[in-house]
Amino acid sequence: MPGEKQTAVKYYVGVDVGSASVRAALVDGFGTVVAHAEQPIQVWEPRPDHYEQSSADIWAACCSVTKEVVRGVDASRIRGLGFDATCSLVVVDKQFQPLAVNCEEQNHRNVIMWMDHRAASQVERINATQHRVLNYVGGAMSVEMQPPKLLWMKENLPESWEKVGYFFDLPDFLSWKATGVTARSLCTVVCKWTYTADRGWDDSFWKMIGLEDLVKDKYEKIGNHVLSPGEAVGRGLTPEAAKDLGLPEGIAVAASLIDAHAGGLGVIGADVKGHNLPCENQPITSRVAMICGTSSCHMGVSETPIFVPGVWGPYFSAMVPGLWLNEGGQSATGKLIDHVVRGHVAFPELEAKAAASAHSIYTYLNSHLDLIKKSLPVGFLTVDLHVWPDFHGNRSPLTDLTLKGMVVGLTLSRGLDELALIYLAAIQAIALGTRHILEAMQAAGHAITTLFLCGGLSKNPLFVQMHADITGKPVVLSKEVESVLVGAAILGACASGDFASIQEAMAKMGKIGRVVQPNHEHKRFYDKKYEVFLKLVEHQREYRSIMNS
């Protein structure tokens, strides 16, 4: 109305560092992504199971994408900045300069990636201690967590170890670069480093595994100042970081989150009224957020601690303040689908036909499956083709990094039909793995009724439908596909003081887009597929026992 004062729109910046790229988004107070940018980052694989990155390369990409999304925006309207990232390990010296995590002494390669499995023998020794902290990681620590990587570095790179000033989880490195404050997020230290919200660090654990030198300096190298996710860090953005990022000096910077947890924050608290979902009028504890990208994470919360064998946690306040978090996961999902498709002899034909039709290879494959299914439901095409998906070991619920992938039902056919079928079977195997995780969580005491999906794989309608059909649960997709970025922006919004709590920001900024219901007529078929799925791992363990006897 004329003369009526209009409220200026407030914006928040979310920055997400994934495995292969950095993304940023400008998000308004209603959770709408106004601008989005992405830039690839480098990954080195110097030897099998070794994956490394550069913190300088990552920060440069953060600066580039942030400048892009805020270009032309009134700086006074940008209220806060939030980071999320993969739980990779960043190593710097006492002057905060990059320090090599490799035998080649390449200092710029100073990040051991989350998916790096070099510390297999170290994690085996850690798990053999049966220390009490392992109760909070499903009974066995993963090779993807930080203590085994630290132990590997001490044992294999003693010269670098002596020079170390700080070890950061990547999300905490980013908040340090932005603020100059070495505070760590409760999310990272609880989920990946064995910190607990009530007791802090456990000296006896670090001494028992041979890392007593971290205790001596009162944990300065790994963090002795811990903040809750979304809490404001220091005095906000430093002048140097402000210039690098193209943002105003002093704006609020939030204590960060691991990327999967940011995705959970972006979707799990959305208002579901009017969608006829079983979680309506139920507590948030009836929901699981599934973040599906290179790998997948399954985030479930509870009011009291639930110990789930083979599932990480319970972690107090690691994602939603005041609630306990359990985190299941699959180490290779998007990466597995890419591996299966791109490694097939018919991939060049697929690539050419997809390009000619101006579709992505996965859209083309989905259409091709519709062509060859005839009168059958698409999923039934794999009646004789079965995949065990642990090509990179099992994270949950078996916690066995030595497990291998399996394919049963191969023929001599080499065409596009066969490529489409193995692609479908791989997607089904991932969904069957999700069912395996959910059943473990439910057996331990979770009451899960609804899945909330986000991440790159949630854009694939076949992936989504298979998860609904195979788990028997409705799948909720967020209105904003980039839920992880919305989650990061929610952190910035909380740090700015514009919302009273993370819960309030989640409800305001998380929006439902579409609901995919399971086809219950297909239940019998997928129950049989699940029975075969469980037999596959039994057979793998049986033949390994024979070969090792």
UniProtKB/TrEMBL annotation:
What processes in GO biological process is this protein linked to? Answer: pentose metabolic process
Q: Which Pfam families match?
A: FGGY_C, FGGY_N
Q: Superkingdom, according to UniProt?
A: Eukaryota
List, for all copies, the residue spans of the domain called Carbohydrate kinase FGGY C-terminal: 289-495
Instruction: Give Gene Ontology CC terms.
Output: cytoplasm
Sample GO molecular function, one term: D-ribulokinase activity
UniProt keyword Membrane, yes or no = no
InterPro entries documented for this protein: ATPase_NBD, Carb_kinase_FGGY, FGGY_C, FGGY_N, FGGY_RbtK-like
**UniProt keyword list:** Kinase, Transferase
Q: Where is the Carbohydrate kinase FGGY N-terminal domain?
A: 11-266
Stored PANTHER family: FGGY CARBOHYDRATE KINASE DOMAIN-CONTAINING PROTEIN, RIBULOKINASE
Which family does the UniProt entry place this protein in?
A: Belongs to the FGGY kinase family.
Name recorded for this polypeptide: FGGY carbohydrate kinase domain-containing protein
Please report the organism this UniProt entry assigns to the protein. Oriolus oriolus (Eurasian golden oriole)
Q: Which gene encodes it?
A: Fggy
